[in-house]
């Protein structure tokens, strides 16, 4: 992928640092100023969608999966930009029909993600979209859900990556696009 242009660089500059949120010692990255700016949001959606295109610009994915909850905000417009459907990956108990579920470890406990069993067709190629890659637990669990459906992960696209954490290791050999590394 090419280097971000001034439009994307300007968009990423809108991410605000909020010290000591949600607890002392944490530097929170607030994406709401970026989301509120149409030009910035358009640049980010275009850059994330590029991970689902081939070199000629044609979409090469059948669906975009967005992980709860900010992955919904970014993933749905990425799906629209690619001309494909959007699939939400939700926390346990939030989807109304039969689901596949994958549990994974958190720093203090466990979380479970679910996807509808009929959300993907066997053979579908999917793009995973979320806001932050940290330890990679959410992305890895989502990749497992995709496999349960008989589909495959074409690529993972993240707004930002926390470079001091091992998230990339959890992704493995799947192509990864991160627009910003902090």
Description:
The protein has a domain at 57-181: 3-Layer(aba) Sandwich (Rossmann fold), CATH 3.40.50.2020. It is α/β, with parallel strands linked by helices. β8 (152-161), α6 (167-171) and β9 form a beta-alpha-beta unit. It is 29% helix and 34% strand. It is built from six helices and nine strands, in the order αββααβαββββαβαβ. It has helices at residues 6-12, 32-35, 38-49, 70-82, 137-148, 167-171, and strands spanning 16-19, 27-30, 63-67, 85-91, 99-106, 109-116, 125-133, 152-161, 176-181. α1 packs across α3. The two termini are 19 Å apart. The strands form two sheets. The protein has a seven-stranded mixed sheet with strand order 5-6-4-3-7-8-9, with helices on both faces. It catalyses: AMP + diphosphate = 5-phospho-alpha-D-ribose 1-diphosphate + adenine. Homodimer. Catalyzes a salvage reaction resulting in the formation of AMP, that is energically less costly than de novo synthesis.
Write the layout of secondary structure elements.
Elements: H1 6-12, E1 16-19, E2 27-30, H2 32-35, H3 38-49, E3 63-67, H4 70-82, E4 85-91, E5 99-106, E6 109-116, E7 125-133, H5 137-148, E8 152-161, H6 167-171, E9 176-181
Helix pairs in contact: 1-3, 3-4
Q: Which features would summarize this protein structure in a list?
A:
cytoplasm, about 180 residues, disordered N terminus, Adenine phosphoribosyltransferase, alpha/beta
Summarize this entry quickly:
It comes from Nocardioides caricicola. The chain is of the alpha/beta class and 182 residues long.
């Amino acid at each position: 992928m090419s280097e971000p242009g001034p439009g994307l660089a300007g968009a990423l500059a809108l991410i605000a640092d909020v010290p000591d949120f949600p607890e002392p010692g944490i530097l929170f990255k607030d994406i709401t100023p970026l989301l509120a700016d149409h030009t910035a949001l358009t640049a980010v959606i275009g850059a994330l969608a590029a991970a689902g295109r081939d070199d000629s610009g044609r979409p090469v994915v059948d669906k975009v999966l967005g992980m709860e909850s900010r992955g919904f905000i970014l993933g749905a417009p990425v799906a629209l930009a690619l001309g494909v459907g959007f699939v939400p990956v939700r926390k346990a108990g939030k989807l109304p029909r039969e689901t596949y579920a994958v549990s994974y470890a958190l720093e203090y406990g466990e979380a479970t993600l679910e996807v509808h069993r009929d959300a993907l067709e066997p053979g579908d190629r999917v793009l995973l979209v979320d806001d932050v890659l940290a330890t990679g637990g959410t992305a890895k669990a989502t990749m497992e859900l995709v496999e349960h459906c008989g589909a495959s992960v074409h690529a993972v696209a993240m707004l930002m990556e926390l470079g001091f954490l091992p998230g990339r290791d959890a992704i493995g050999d799947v192509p990864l696009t991160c627009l910003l590394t902090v």
